[in-house]
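REQUEST ID: PR-0412
SUBMITTED BY: lab tech R.K.
PRIORITY: routine
TASK: structure prediction, single protein chain
INPUT:
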Amino acid sequence: MNVALIGMPASGKTRVGRELAKLKKMLFIDTDEEIKKIYGDIKGIFEEKGEEFFREIESDVVKKISEVDNAVISTGGGVILKEDNMSALKKNSVVVYLFVSPKTVFGRTKRITRPVVGDLQSAKKLYEKRSALYEKYADLKVDSNDYDLKRKTEEIILFLENYGEKK
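STATUS: complete
OUTPUT:
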């Protein structure tokens, strides 16, 4: 069984994922890092080939990664835009939605460049477009507006322990 982390850009998926994998002695896989290994810089892909091309290669990576077992998978923020991605992940994963507000997204991304978040207004639009999909696919929703890594990982671990009993 895997744990797949979904959420807006800068919601903490990589940070939480690394810590969770360490604590649970699981493999950590970041889909964005896997894409970078094969295709290079994500911002460059968006600029040169467009979002549609990026979503296609993201789907290829997600399908391959979803076959792995005992991994924490940090996904890109837009992974939920393709139902096939989520079907592949949900076959062998508990899906955890790291929720952050648009204001938090903008605050965290204004220091770094993200292809789909340029200002607070674009963060709000992105949130409006994606929030229902994050909710739809999530087995667990964790507030990630703060930087309390210990609280977030403990909440996920407790859920995972109880999740096995529910099945």
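NOTES: The chain has one domain: 2-162.
REVIEWED BY: pending
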